Amino acid sequence: MGMRMISKESTSMVYHRAECRYARKIYKENRLQMNWEDAEWKGYRPCKCCDSISFLYSMELDNIECFAEQHNLDIDLKNNKIYVRTDVGCWKIVYKKGNQKFILLHRNYVDGRIALDEVDNAPYHRQGDMGEAGSIMKYLKYIQKHDAFKQNMPTDYRHMPRNTKRQKAYYRSAKRKAQKCSARRLDSLFVLIEGQQNIKSLSFC
């Protein structure tokens, strides 16, 4: 993922991925491989063709389409972002050109599988337990496991498994959510009781 191709005789000072059509045009005797950070240190800049999410998406497209069909995922490239939609989640994969890695974002509010034209109608947050990656497929495998677990998660958090680190994290998250819901219900109950007491005091006036 980190190695790039440059031409020793290049005046444009551009580096390419080996799969790039422009890299294949470099004469064999001029080809030189180096890490992209080193290439930039030497004054080279990334190729606009192969340093793009559309190029990287096309490189993994066969695996992406096969995985999507196998696991019933909707995966779309839209506005230079990859959107992944399941029955319980919506995700966004963004390519950071600065360090040539992907980041994974999770939509905050999802009610069933949403339409593609609605994917940006709510905010996203960075998925904290998933760092930067050099592969789209790495994120797709994570998303599939995450949402499959979420879909089959017990309604009572106390019945959730806590064997692995990830299961423990899901348990803690579900516990916090349940405690917040309980606190809101309790607040609503106090408001209701208070209202009834006010009504009773008024009836005796």
Description:
With 205 residues, the chain is of the alpha+beta class. The chain is built from 5 helices and 9 strands. It has helices at 36-41, 53-59, 61-71, 136-151, 165-203, and strands at residues 3-7, 14-15, 31-35, 45-46, 74-78, 81-85, 90-96, 101-107, 124-126. It has a 5-stranded antiparallel beta sheet with strand order 5-6-7-8-9. Strand 6 and strand 7 (90-96) form a beta hairpin. The mean pLDDT is 87.
List the domain count as a whole number: 3
Identify low-pLDDT runs: none
Proportion in helices:
25-40%
Helical segment count: 5
Distance between the termini: 79 Å
Radius of gyration based on Cα positions: 25 Å
Mean of the pLDDT scores? 87
Strand order of the largest sheet: 5-6-7-8-9
The description of the largest β-sheet is: 5 strands, antiparallel
As a percent range, the share of strand residues is 15-25%
Order of helices and strands: EEEHEHHEEEEEHH
Structural class: alpha+beta
- Give the strand tally: 9
Shape: elongated
Condensed summary:
By secondary structure, the chain is an alpha+beta fold. The chain has helices spanning 36-41, 53-59, 61-71, 136-151, 165-203; strands spanning 3-7, 14-15, 31-35, 45-46, 74-78, 81-85, 90-96, 101-107, 124-126.
